[in-house]
Write a structure and sequence with these properties.
By secondary structure, the protein is α+β, with helices and mostly antiparallel strands. It has two domains: 11-163, Beta Barrel (OB fold (Dihydrolipoamide Acetyltransferase, E2P)); 207-328 and 389-482, 2-Layer Sandwich (BirA Bifunctional Protein, domain 2), CATH 3.30.930.10. The chain has 16 helices and 18 strands. The strands form four sheets. An eight-stranded mixed beta sheet has the order 6-10-11-18-17-16-15-14, sandwiched between helices. Strands 1-2-3-5-4 form a five-stranded mixed barrel. The protein has a three-stranded antiparallel beta sheet with strand order 7-9-8, with no helix packed on it. The longest helix is centred in the middle third of the chain and has 23 residues, at 183-205. The two termini are 30 Å apart. Residues 192-505 form the Aminoacyl-transfer RNA synthetases class-II family profile domain.
Length: 507
């Protein structure tokens, strides 16, 4: 088979290739040969060969015989000498080593060489047994003495030589093909694994205990979000998929798990865009005897440790360089908004004045919004996009976070922050509300909003309130979006950071 051109195949060509491959499979079976054997010879991983025989000089040969296996990602068949490149799957060590194999008439014989030319296509898995050599061009290789088909690929992979033929839509819909073709896709998988491991290492170093909480819940709470409804047939009750991890983790703190965390999937039945997915991964942790300041420092350490694992505390973005080693600023909502507006805004600023400020800056408002909501909207539109360097936006109005503690020095505010880096919210933290009476009042108000038709308002969770009445220690808590953290370091959209993102049905 000649070198493949650097262009994606047409639909007709793909259909023809599938037919040819199906015919090859049928022929192999008819000849009594296996297209999908249970096992094949494999004594060394490709990376092991590259490591052990890395010092071979150009043209040098050994009598060391190995059996290697992998997917064929390059194929060049000539008269008496065939070349192929095998690729193995990624591991914790690398993103998928490649190694050249060579088949010569003198080494494998006419029958085996003819079978290779007739049977093997790009994308097939093969096992090759032979001597480790260095080619005349200095390429470390296995000179085959024998080979066997390990798995016949019936569908050609999209453009194995470059990603030009892989649109973003194809990449996310056929991630299996994406991982084969693109180094960046494999690197994203590896980086995500490194990030999750780093977060666990940091939290374990600070004596946190990892737990798991229910995904199916009777009452949705812990965040202002629209849930996914479902039904449990065994009990004949309506339930929802969780929108947050918070309320069960706080129950654990009540029970004496003083430092607790969970990294898990949560589900919000909301919009889909470059920073939002209906299904995503959240880290939440809660620290007894902590507050918003102590958990902010731990959050900073988590981010810095992730940066060190990925290689740099300076992140390049189109808006400029983010310096994670620099100051992590604390910025109050009202002072921050006042700074941008050029005039003071406080919790006492009237709704009419706020609406006038919004109109002057062409910020669209819902007429039903109160003053606190208008302040939050103004801040989101005018301030948040400017927060390139790490910033803890703090001192929110109470309606922003119904589960946060009233501010210790200003009852018009709460002790809560949102961490912005690169103009995007990455996480949120609180001095947690532990007064069961005040918490009941806030959740009751939320449940009334839900009953009035707000699909994002929390429901009244009596069991959670019962737990608080047992007594909870003062605590700080954090929710950090894992996908958005990876987006920060990779510059990719959320669909690229999630291995198999939820997509609209389509071809």
């Amino acid at each position: 088979m000649p070198d493949q051109p650097n262009v994606p195949p047409t639909e007709a060509e793909v259909s023809e290739q599938r037919r040819v491959r199906q015919d090859k499979r049928a022929r192999l079976l008819a000849e009594g040969r296996q297209a999908y054997p249970v096992s094949v010879p494999r004594t060394h991983a490709l990376r092991e060969v590259r490591s052990r025989w890395a010092s071979l000089g150009t043209g040098e040969e050994t009598q060391d015989v190995v059996s290697v296996a992998g997917r064929v990602v390059f194929l060049r068949n000539t008269g008496k000498l065939c070349f192929a490149t095998l690729q193995e799957g990624l591991s914790t060590h690398d993103t998928g080593t490649r190694l050249q194999v060579m088949l010569s008439l003198a080494e494998v014989g006419q029958e085996a060489l003819d079978s290779w030319k007739a049977d093997v296509d790009l994308g097939d898995f093969v096992s090759v047994t032979g001597r480790v050599v260095s080619s005349r061009r200095g390429e470390l290789s296995v000179m085959a003495g024998d080979w066997v088909l390990a798995s016949k690929a019936l569908r050609p992979l999209p453009n194995l030589y470059a990603d030009a033929g892989l649109s973003e839509e194809t990449r996310v819909r056929q991630r299996y093909a994406d991982l084969t073709v693109r180094e960046e896709a494999r690197q994203m998988v590896l980086d995500r694994a490194r990030v999750t491991r780093s977060i666990r290492d940091t939290l374990h170093r600070h004596d946190f205990v990892e737990v798991e909480s229910p995904v199916l819940q009777l009452v949705h709470g812990g965040a202002h979000a629209r849930p996914f409804p479902t039904h449990l047939n065994a009990f004949d009750i309506d339930m929802t998929l969780r929108i947050a991890l918070e309320l069960f983790l706080k129950r654990a703190v009540v029970g004496g798990v003083d430092r607790v965390y969970e990294m898990g999937r949560i589900f919000r039945n909301e919009g889909v865009d470059s920073t939002h997915s209906p299904e995503f991964t959240m880290l939440e942790f809660y620290e007894a005897w902590g507050d918003q300041r102590s958990v902010a420092e731990l959050t900073r350490q988590i981010v810095l440790d992730v940066a060190d694992v990925l290689g740099s505390r300076q992140v390049e973005t189109p808006a400029g360089t983010i310096d994670l080693d620099g100051e992590w600023r604390w910025l109050g909502v009202y002072p921050g908004l006042s700074e941008v507006l050029g005039e003071e805004v406080t919790p006492e600023t009237s709704l009419d004045d706020l609406r006038a400020l919004a109109a002057a800056r062409e910020v669209t408002l819902d007429p039903a919004w109160g003053a606190e909501k208008v302040v939050l909207e103004l801040f989101a539109e005018l301030v948040e996009p400017t927060l390139l360097q790490p910033t803890f936006v703090c001192d929110y109005p109470p309606s922003a976070q119904p589960l946060a503690r009233p501010h210790r020095s200003d009852p018009a505010l709460i002790e809560a922050w949102d961490l912005f880096i690169g103009g995007v919210e990455r996480g949120t933290g609180f001095s947690e509300l532990i007064d069961p009476v005040v918490q009941r009042e806030r959740l009751t108000a939320q449940s009334l909003e839900a009953a009035a038709g707000d699909p994002e308002a929390m429901q009244l969770d009596d069991d959670f309130l019962d737990a608080l009445e047992f007594g909870a220690p003062p605590m700080g808590g954090v929710g950090l979006g894992l996908d958005r953290l990876i987006m920060l370091f990779s510059g990719a959209g959320i669909r690229e950071t999630i291995l198999f993102p939820l997509l609209r049905p389509g071809s």
